[in-house]
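User: Working on a comparison across species. This one is Phage integrase SAM-like domain-containing protein from Christiangramia lutea. Can you predict its structure so I can line it up against the others?
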Amino acid sequence: MEITPKTRSAGKDHLYIFINVHDGGKYPIARPSVGVKIKKQNWNKKGTSDKKNWVKTTEPDYRRINQKIHDLMIQIEAELKGFTTKEITQQKEKKITGGKLSFFNYAEKRMKGRGNIDTKVNDQYAIKKLKKFLEIHGLIGLQFGDITRTLMNDFYRWMRNSNLKASSAKKYIESIQAMYNDALENPDCSFDLKGHQKNPFHRFKYDKEISATTPKSFTKKEFECYVKAVLPENVRKPHKYKLCHNMSKFQFWGAFRVRDIMLLKWSNLVTYDDHINVDFFTSKGKNHINRPLPPSIILLLANQLDKYVTHTTQKLGEFDKQIEYNQQEYERTQKSIPPVNKIPNDVLIDLLKKGYSLEDITNQKFHPIHKKLKKLEKKIESLFKQKQGYVEDILRGVIKNHPDEYIWDWGNESCWGERSPEQWTNKDLKTMRSNINSYSDYIDRIAKKAGVDRKISSHITRHTASQMMFDEGMTAHQAGEYLTHKWLSTTEKYRGRFSRKNDEISEGLSNLIN
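Assistant: Here's the predicted structure for Phage integrase SAM-like domain-containing protein from Christiangramia lutea:
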């Protein structure tokens, strides 16, 4: 049984496409029309089912027409053999192995199984770029056997000539390489490099990109200003500023990727008798994170509790007013104590006779007001504990009663529901990227308010946390563990990006000149 696409004249310059069904007899048993008309020069006489390339790329809507031809051929074969179209498709795919295996079909299947969102998105962009390149050069339906060093070099040069950054072009080539190498190791593909054929990606040469270094992290002073930034109120969405400000501080504490923050649910906070932990698996690398939340970090979640227990932040504001009042009272009381050097000698001698040490006298522990200061200290400490306890009690209730809701608004607004990132559609991926871009815009505006006059991205708090770890004397291994890096080289790249790796050496050498 032969089922092949054919054409017949549709005037001087055009052709009709039909499917010729032949069982070996003198005449075809059927010749159903595909229902399309194309220009004569756009018909590819050497087109094959493997590549679906009967209609050339010069024909408008060539993809849809080729797919229509393919679908009709499958439908006819299924009807003749008494199978479903899905069964016929599966049978055909099993027969296609080795160099004739469709690269794009394999890539699509591989991407569906990718758990890492970033990698999946990079793969999608790489495939999109490669398809565009092939289309411009009149090629359709890439097979593994078609992937050569020359083709990849041409693809890379085309990307660079399209003003794509060297780093982006390299990333896309590496995505294609990963898919290619994955197929080499997959026994179901029956695809290997034979004879003298070399891996087309072996020692692939990339352009070096030279550009001005922009600081990737806040300086210590910049970060202090950012944390204390006064957020705008007379804007359309003032709550978004507060949300993003708190999120970025939470992100800094854990040195988390912003995507992981957005995916956190209340069920990712695990309650114990005396503390609460954040517990989740990272979306990149699937590393297990289990860390106790410090009191200051728990307070960052207070705004997110308002929708469950109304007036939560209002109550916290009342605590803050009481704390501020008592702190001011403490400072006023402290200032009312006369300086030690103004205490008469006879009084000093009398105090020593009463058993006060010089340290006690220096700290003015003999003064009657000291008792009042102690009382105020205890009061302030008590208010802090009450404030903390109030938030923790509400938080424990929310964790128990709303485990499947997202902590930060982005998740609930995005309608991801119960779907894990592995089950996300392209629409879900676009939503996540849109959320991250929006988050970046907000923290960039907050940074501008804090006096940081350069473009800020969502990753800056993670970079800042990394830099401060190094400044505190952490080794790359220790920092890498906290950052959940798989490779030490990644952590070293982080250190290198900050342009401060060799500060001590630089200073030491300059001192030798003086």
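For your comparison, note: The chain has a mean pLDDT of 84.

User: Helpful, thanks.
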